[in-house]
Design goal:
The chain has 73 residues and is mostly helical. It is globular and about 40 Å long. It starts with 5 loop residues before the first helix and ends with a helix.
Length: 73
């Protein structure tokens, strides 16, 4: 099995810090478990600029995906 890239590990580490959009379906802890698995214990000093960017990007895509799934249901 191929290991996640350094970029994927860092993004997953950032995502673990963010509050996520609640979804009325599935297992709410699954995303955190996946992010922890991908992060693989990556330790680094977070960048404030990257934190803001990824926080906004994550919130945007969470809203889009949860909204689309809600409309399809």
């Amino acid at each position: 099995m191929k290991e996640p890239s350094s970029t994927a590990r860092r993004v997953a580490s950032y995502r673990l810090r963010f509050e996520r959009v609640a979804a009325p379906y599935g297992d709410p802890s699954s995303d955190d478990r996946l992010a922890r698995d991908v992060a693989g214990g990556e330790q680094f000093e977070p960048s404030p600029g990257m934190d803001r960017y990824l926080r906004a990007r994550t919130a945007f895509f969470d809203r889009v995906v949860v909204g689309a799934i809600g409309r399809a249901a």
